[in-house]
Amino acid sequence: MNETILRLEPAHIPAAMRLNLLAGWNQTQADWQRVLELEPEGCFGLFRDGLLVSTTTAVCYGRKLAWIGMVLTDPEYRNRGYARRLMEHALAFLEARGVEWIKLDATAMGRPLYRKLGFEDEAPVERWAAVAPAMSPATTGDYVADAELDLRAFGADRSALLARLARGEAAAIPGQGFAFARPGSLAAYFGPCVARSAEAARNLLQWCLGRHAGQPVFWDLLPANEAALALAREFGFERRRELVRMVRRGAAARGSFDHDDSLIYAIAGFEYG
Ligand SMILES: CC(C)(COP(=O)(O)OP(=O)(O)OC[C@H]1O[C@@H](n2cnc3c(N)ncnc32)[C@H](O)[C@@H]1OP(=O)(O)O)[C@@H](O)C(=O)NCCC(=O)NCCS
After folding, report:
1. pTM strictly above 0.85
2. Same domain, yes or no, for 136 and 261?
3. Which atom belonging to ligand 1 lies closest to the Cα atom of 87?
4. 6 CA to centre of ligand 1 in angstroms
Protein backbone atom coordinates (compact mmCIF):
# COMPACT_ATOMS: atom_id res chain seq x y z
CA MET A 1 0.00 0.00 0.00
CA ASN A 2 1.34 3.39 -1.04
CA GLU A 3 0.35 6.64 0.73
CA THR A 4 1.60 9.93 -0.73
CA ILE A 5 0.85 13.60 -0.15
CA LEU A 6 0.80 15.58 -3.40
CA ARG A 7 -0.06 19.12 -4.42
CA LEU A 8 -3.54 19.15 -5.90
CA GLU A 9 -3.79 20.22 -9.54
CA PRO A 10 -6.75 20.90 -11.84
CA ALA A 11 -6.63 17.29 -13.09
CA HIS A 12 -7.51 16.17 -9.53
CA ILE A 13 -10.74 18.19 -9.34
CA PRO A 14 -13.12 15.34 -10.27
CA ALA A 15 -11.52 13.16 -7.55
CA ALA A 16 -11.80 16.02 -5.04
CA MET A 17 -15.46 16.53 -5.99
CA ARG A 18 -16.08 12.87 -5.14
CA LEU A 19 -15.08 13.67 -1.53
CA ASN A 20 -17.30 16.78 -1.45
CA LEU A 21 -20.29 14.82 -2.67
CA LEU A 22 -19.69 12.01 -0.16
CA ALA A 23 -19.69 14.65 2.61
CA GLY A 24 -22.81 16.36 1.21
CA TRP A 25 -21.01 19.68 0.81
CA ASN A 26 -22.18 22.52 -1.43
CA GLN A 27 -18.97 23.25 -3.33
CA THR A 28 -18.80 22.79 -7.11
CA GLN A 29 -15.99 22.06 -9.56
CA ALA A 30 -15.73 25.84 -10.07
CA ASP A 31 -15.14 26.28 -6.32
CA TRP A 32 -12.26 23.79 -6.41
CA GLN A 33 -10.92 25.50 -9.53
CA ARG A 34 -10.97 28.86 -7.76
CA VAL A 35 -9.16 27.57 -4.66
CA LEU A 36 -6.47 25.94 -6.83
CA GLU A 37 -6.03 29.16 -8.84
CA LEU A 38 -5.77 31.30 -5.72
CA GLU A 39 -3.21 29.08 -4.02
CA PRO A 40 -1.66 26.58 -6.45
CA GLU A 41 1.07 25.68 -3.94
CA GLY A 42 -1.19 25.36 -0.89
CA CYS A 43 -3.72 22.67 -1.84
CA PHE A 44 -2.83 19.15 -0.80
CA GLY A 45 -4.22 15.66 -1.27
CA LEU A 46 -3.39 12.34 0.32
CA PHE A 47 -3.39 9.56 -2.26
CA ARG A 48 -3.69 5.92 -1.26
CA ASP A 49 -2.61 3.61 -4.06
CA GLY A 50 -3.42 6.45 -6.47
CA LEU A 51 -6.89 7.15 -5.02
CA LEU A 52 -7.46 10.63 -3.56
CA VAL A 53 -8.81 9.92 -0.05
CA SER A 54 -8.20 13.18 1.86
CA THR A 55 -7.77 16.89 1.08
CA THR A 56 -6.76 20.13 2.83
CA THR A 57 -6.35 23.60 1.28
CA ALA A 58 -4.60 26.69 2.63
CA VAL A 59 -5.41 29.98 0.90
CA CYS A 60 -2.97 32.77 1.83
CA TYR A 61 -4.03 36.39 2.10
CA GLY A 62 -0.52 37.80 1.81
CA ARG A 63 1.67 36.96 4.82
CA LYS A 64 -0.93 38.20 7.29
CA LEU A 65 -3.47 35.38 7.20
CA ALA A 66 -4.08 31.96 5.71
CA TRP A 67 -7.43 30.18 5.62
CA ILE A 68 -7.57 26.39 5.90
CA GLY A 69 -10.44 24.65 4.14
CA MET A 70 -11.67 21.59 2.27
CA VAL A 71 -10.55 19.33 5.15
CA LEU A 72 -12.21 16.14 3.98
CA THR A 73 -11.51 12.43 4.30
CA ASP A 74 -13.32 9.69 2.39
CA PRO A 75 -15.68 8.09 4.98
CA GLU A 76 -14.14 4.68 4.23
CA TYR A 77 -10.70 5.92 5.25
CA ARG A 78 -11.39 8.01 8.34
CA ASN A 79 -9.58 7.68 11.70
CA ARG A 80 -6.32 6.62 10.07
CA GLY A 81 -4.58 9.94 10.68
CA TYR A 82 -4.94 11.23 7.10
CA ALA A 83 -6.53 14.58 7.99
CA ARG A 84 -3.91 15.10 10.70
CA ARG A 85 -1.07 14.38 8.28
CA LEU A 86 -2.46 16.80 5.69
CA MET A 87 -3.06 19.50 8.31
CA GLU A 88 0.51 19.13 9.59
CA HIS A 89 1.75 19.34 5.99
CA ALA A 90 -0.30 22.50 5.36
CA LEU A 91 0.84 24.09 8.65
CA ALA A 92 4.51 23.41 7.75
CA PHE A 93 3.91 25.03 4.33
CA LEU A 94 2.39 28.10 6.00
CA GLU A 95 5.11 28.31 8.65
CA ALA A 96 7.77 28.20 5.88
CA ARG A 97 5.97 31.09 4.14
CA GLY A 98 6.05 33.11 7.34
CA VAL A 99 2.26 33.45 7.55
CA GLU A 100 1.30 35.25 10.76
CA TRP A 101 -2.20 33.98 11.49
CA ILE A 102 -4.14 30.90 10.43
CA LYS A 103 -7.90 30.58 10.67
CA LEU A 104 -10.58 28.08 9.70
CA ASP A 105 -14.25 27.34 10.18
CA ALA A 106 -14.51 24.03 12.05
CA THR A 107 -17.28 21.48 11.94
CA ALA A 108 -17.90 19.42 15.07
CA MET A 109 -16.00 16.58 13.35
CA GLY A 110 -12.96 18.69 12.59
CA ARG A 111 -12.73 20.67 15.82
CA PRO A 112 -10.99 18.04 18.02
CA LEU A 113 -8.17 17.77 15.48
CA TYR A 114 -7.74 21.54 15.22
CA ARG A 115 -7.64 21.93 19.00
CA LYS A 116 -4.85 19.36 19.15
CA LEU A 117 -2.97 21.40 16.53
CA GLY A 118 -3.16 24.60 18.58
CA PHE A 119 -6.24 26.33 17.18
CA GLU A 120 -8.47 28.25 19.58
CA ASP A 121 -12.12 29.24 19.26
CA GLU A 122 -12.74 32.75 17.90
CA ALA A 123 -16.48 32.97 17.15
CA PRO A 124 -19.47 30.85 16.17
CA VAL A 125 -20.34 30.59 12.46
CA GLU A 126 -23.73 29.40 11.25
CA ARG A 127 -25.21 28.20 7.99
CA TRP A 128 -28.73 29.48 7.35
CA ALA A 129 -30.90 28.33 4.45
CA ALA A 130 -34.14 29.35 2.74
CA VAL A 131 -35.99 29.02 -0.49
CA ALA A 132 -35.67 32.55 -1.86
CA PRO A 133 -39.07 34.23 -1.77
CA ALA A 134 -40.42 35.82 -4.96
CA MET A 135 -39.38 39.47 -4.96
CA SER A 136 -38.10 41.97 -7.44
CA PRO A 137 -34.37 42.49 -7.13
CA ALA A 138 -33.40 45.57 -5.14
CA THR A 139 -31.61 48.35 -6.95
CA THR A 140 -27.88 48.05 -6.55
CA GLY A 141 -24.95 49.19 -8.63
CA ASP A 142 -22.36 47.22 -10.55
CA TYR A 143 -19.65 45.77 -8.36
CA VAL A 144 -16.82 48.13 -7.54
CA ALA A 145 -14.09 46.93 -5.19
CA ASP A 146 -13.99 48.64 -1.79
CA ALA A 147 -10.66 47.37 -0.51
CA GLU A 148 -10.64 49.68 2.52
CA LEU A 149 -14.03 48.43 3.77
CA ASP A 150 -13.14 44.78 3.22
CA LEU A 151 -9.79 45.14 4.97
CA ARG A 152 -11.46 46.77 7.97
CA ALA A 153 -14.04 43.99 8.14
CA PHE A 154 -11.89 40.94 7.43
CA GLY A 155 -8.49 42.08 8.68
CA ALA A 156 -6.45 40.84 5.71
CA ASP A 157 -6.24 41.70 2.02
CA ARG A 158 -8.47 39.25 0.17
CA SER A 159 -8.75 41.38 -2.99
CA ALA A 160 -7.46 38.50 -5.18
CA LEU A 161 -10.38 36.34 -4.00
CA LEU A 162 -12.92 39.14 -4.46
CA ALA A 163 -11.61 39.91 -7.97
CA ARG A 164 -12.19 36.28 -8.94
CA LEU A 165 -15.66 36.20 -7.39
CA ALA A 166 -16.48 39.42 -9.27
CA ARG A 167 -16.39 37.43 -12.52
CA GLY A 168 -19.65 35.85 -11.32
CA GLU A 169 -22.66 37.47 -9.62
CA ALA A 170 -21.57 40.65 -7.85
CA ALA A 171 -23.19 43.90 -6.75
CA ALA A 172 -22.32 47.01 -4.78
CA ILE A 173 -23.91 50.06 -3.25
CA PRO A 174 -21.15 52.63 -3.69
CA GLY A 175 -19.63 53.60 -0.36
CA GLN A 176 -22.06 51.32 1.51
CA GLY A 177 -21.15 47.74 0.77
CA PHE A 178 -20.93 44.87 -1.67
CA ALA A 179 -22.09 41.29 -2.08
CA PHE A 180 -21.54 38.23 -4.22
CA ALA A 181 -23.48 35.11 -5.08
CA ARG A 182 -22.45 31.88 -6.77
CA PRO A 183 -23.90 28.51 -7.72
CA GLY A 184 -23.57 25.51 -5.40
CA SER A 185 -24.14 21.76 -5.65
CA LEU A 186 -27.14 21.98 -3.29
CA ALA A 187 -28.07 25.66 -3.17
CA ALA A 188 -27.10 29.07 -4.49
CA TYR A 189 -24.61 30.72 -2.14
CA PHE A 190 -24.98 34.27 -0.79
CA GLY A 191 -21.66 35.74 0.27
CA PRO A 192 -19.43 37.39 0.99
CA CYS A 193 -21.47 40.45 1.91
CA VAL A 194 -19.75 43.33 3.68
CA ALA A 195 -21.79 46.43 4.48
CA ARG A 196 -21.58 49.60 6.53
CA SER A 197 -25.24 49.38 7.57
CA ALA A 198 -28.04 46.85 7.94
CA GLU A 199 -30.01 48.80 5.35
CA ALA A 200 -27.27 48.34 2.75
CA ALA A 201 -27.02 44.65 3.64
CA ARG A 202 -30.79 44.29 3.24
CA ASN A 203 -30.61 45.74 -0.30
CA LEU A 204 -27.74 43.46 -1.20
CA LEU A 205 -29.62 40.44 0.17
CA GLN A 206 -32.69 41.43 -1.85
CA TRP A 207 -30.47 41.71 -4.92
CA CYS A 208 -29.36 38.10 -4.39
CA LEU A 209 -32.78 36.69 -3.48
CA GLY A 210 -34.45 38.45 -6.41
CA ARG A 211 -32.01 36.72 -8.78
CA HIS A 212 -32.63 33.32 -7.19
CA ALA A 213 -36.38 33.49 -6.49
CA GLY A 214 -37.81 30.03 -5.82
CA GLN A 215 -34.33 28.46 -5.43
CA PRO A 216 -32.67 27.20 -2.26
CA VAL A 217 -30.08 29.65 -0.94
CA PHE A 218 -27.34 29.10 1.67
CA TRP A 219 -26.03 31.97 3.74
CA ASP A 220 -23.16 31.55 6.22
CA LEU A 221 -23.08 34.27 8.84
CA LEU A 222 -21.43 35.24 12.12
CA PRO A 223 -24.26 35.25 14.68
CA ALA A 224 -22.40 37.85 16.76
CA ASN A 225 -23.61 40.25 14.05
CA GLU A 226 -27.16 40.56 15.35
CA ALA A 227 -28.29 42.68 12.40
CA ALA A 228 -27.34 39.82 10.06
CA LEU A 229 -29.30 37.36 12.22
CA ALA A 230 -32.34 39.63 12.22
CA LEU A 231 -32.23 39.89 8.41
CA ALA A 232 -31.93 36.13 8.05
CA ARG A 233 -35.04 35.63 10.19
CA GLU A 234 -36.95 38.41 8.45
CA PHE A 235 -36.39 36.78 5.04
CA GLY A 236 -37.44 33.31 6.19
CA PHE A 237 -34.00 31.72 6.60
CA GLU A 238 -33.51 28.90 9.12
CA ARG A 239 -30.37 27.79 10.94
CA ARG A 240 -28.99 24.57 9.45
CA ARG A 241 -25.46 24.08 10.76
CA GLU A 242 -23.30 25.43 13.57
CA LEU A 243 -19.53 25.69 13.21
CA VAL A 244 -16.78 27.45 15.12
CA ARG A 245 -14.32 29.92 13.62
CA MET A 246 -10.89 29.06 15.03
CA VAL A 247 -7.56 30.88 15.00
CA ARG A 248 -3.92 29.87 15.45
CA ARG A 249 -1.13 32.33 15.97
CA GLY A 250 1.96 31.68 13.82
CA ALA A 251 5.54 32.25 14.97
CA ALA A 252 5.68 35.44 12.85
CA ALA A 253 2.52 37.02 14.39
CA ARG A 254 2.87 40.38 16.15
CA GLY A 255 0.19 42.09 18.25
CA SER A 256 -3.41 41.09 17.72
CA PHE A 257 -5.47 40.35 14.62
CA ASP A 258 -7.81 43.30 14.10
CA HIS A 259 -11.06 42.76 12.23
CA ASP A 260 -14.68 43.89 12.56
CA ASP A 261 -17.33 41.16 12.37
CA SER A 262 -20.11 43.75 12.69
CA LEU A 263 -19.43 44.71 9.04
CA ILE A 264 -19.62 41.12 7.82
CA TYR A 265 -23.16 40.10 6.89
CA ALA A 266 -22.15 36.96 5.01
CA ILE A 267 -18.81 35.18 5.04
CA ALA A 268 -17.11 34.23 1.77
CA GLY A 269 -17.30 30.49 2.45
CA PHE A 270 -15.98 28.00 4.98
CA GLU A 271 -12.92 27.50 2.75
CA TYR A 272 -12.19 31.26 2.49
CA GLY A 273 -13.33 32.95 5.70
C1 LIG B 1 -12.95 15.71 10.10
C2 LIG B 1 -12.32 14.70 9.17
C3 LIG B 1 -11.68 15.44 8.01
C4 LIG B 1 -11.25 13.93 9.95
O5 LIG B 1 -10.58 13.11 9.02
P6 LIG B 1 -9.73 11.82 9.45
O7 LIG B 1 -8.80 11.54 8.34
O8 LIG B 1 -10.65 10.75 9.88
O9 LIG B 1 -8.96 12.40 10.73
P10 LIG B 1 -7.73 11.73 11.47
O11 LIG B 1 -7.80 10.24 11.35
O12 LIG B 1 -6.48 12.38 11.00
O13 LIG B 1 -8.03 12.15 12.94
C14 LIG B 1 -7.58 13.37 13.40
C15 LIG B 1 -7.57 13.43 14.90
O16 LIG B 1 -8.84 13.81 15.36
C17 LIG B 1 -9.35 12.83 16.25
N18 LIG B 1 -10.76 12.77 16.01
C19 LIG B 1 -11.37 12.58 14.83
N20 LIG B 1 -12.69 12.62 15.00
C21 LIG B 1 -12.91 12.84 16.32
C22 LIG B 1 -14.07 13.00 17.12
N23 LIG B 1 -15.29 12.94 16.57
N24 LIG B 1 -13.92 13.25 18.44
C25 LIG B 1 -12.68 13.32 18.98
N26 LIG B 1 -11.55 13.18 18.28
C27 LIG B 1 -11.68 12.95 16.96
C28 LIG B 1 -8.65 11.58 15.91
O29 LIG B 1 -8.61 10.69 16.99
C30 LIG B 1 -7.28 12.09 15.57
O31 LIG B 1 -6.55 12.39 16.74
P32 LIG B 1 -5.02 11.94 16.88
O33 LIG B 1 -4.31 12.48 15.66
O34 LIG B 1 -4.57 12.59 18.13
O35 LIG B 1 -5.05 10.45 16.92
C36 LIG B 1 -13.36 13.67 8.63
O37 LIG B 1 -14.08 13.16 9.73
C38 LIG B 1 -14.34 14.24 7.63
O39 LIG B 1 -14.06 14.29 6.43
N40 LIG B 1 -15.52 14.70 8.12
C41 LIG B 1 -16.56 15.27 7.25
C42 LIG B 1 -16.14 16.62 6.74
C43 LIG B 1 -15.75 17.58 7.84
O44 LIG B 1 -16.52 17.84 8.77
N45 LIG B 1 -14.52 18.12 7.72
C46 LIG B 1 -13.99 19.09 8.66
C47 LIG B 1 -14.21 20.43 8.13
S48 LIG B 1 -13.73 21.68 9.27
Report:
1. yes
2. yes
3. 12
4. 20
Looking at the fold, whether 105 and 69 belong to one and the same domain comes out as: yes
Q: How far is the CA of 9 from the centre of ligand 1 (A)?
A: 24
Distance from the CA of 269 to the center of ligand 1, in angstroms? 20
Closest atom of ligand 1 relative to the 243 alpha carbon: 48
Q: Is 109 in the pocket of ligand 1 (CB under 6 A)?
A: yes
Residue 136 pLDDT > 80? no
Domain boundary pick from 74, 105, 123: 123
Residue ending a domain, choose from 123, 157, 173: 123
Per the CB < 8 A criterion, the answer to whether 20 and 68 are in contact is no
Pocket flag, ligand 1, residue 110 (CB < 6 Å): yes
128, β-bridge pairs: 219, 239
pLDDT, one tens digit per residue, over 19-40 is 999 999 999 999 999 999 999 9
Q: Please write the tens of the pLDDT for every residue from 141-167.
A: 889 899 999 999 999 999 999 999 999
Residue 271 in domain: no
* 114 and 197, same domain (yes or no): no
Number of structural domains in the chain = 2
Are 146 and 105 part of one and the same domain? Answer: no
Q: Is the CB of 243 under 6 A from ligand 1?
A: no
272 within domain boundaries:
no
Strands in the chain per DSSP E: 3-7, 43-48, 51-61, 65-73, 101-106, 120-131, 169-173, 177-182, 188-195, 216-221, 238-249, 264-266
Give CA–CA dist 17/10, Å, rounded: 11
Which residue CA neighbors atom 42 of ligand 1 most closely?
72
Using alpha carbons only, how large is the chain's radius of gyration in Å?
A: 18
Domain limits at 30?
3-123
Residues 95 and 131 in one domain: no
Q: Which of 18, 74, 78, 243 to mutate to test the pocket of ligand 1 (most atoms within 8 A of CB)?
A: 78
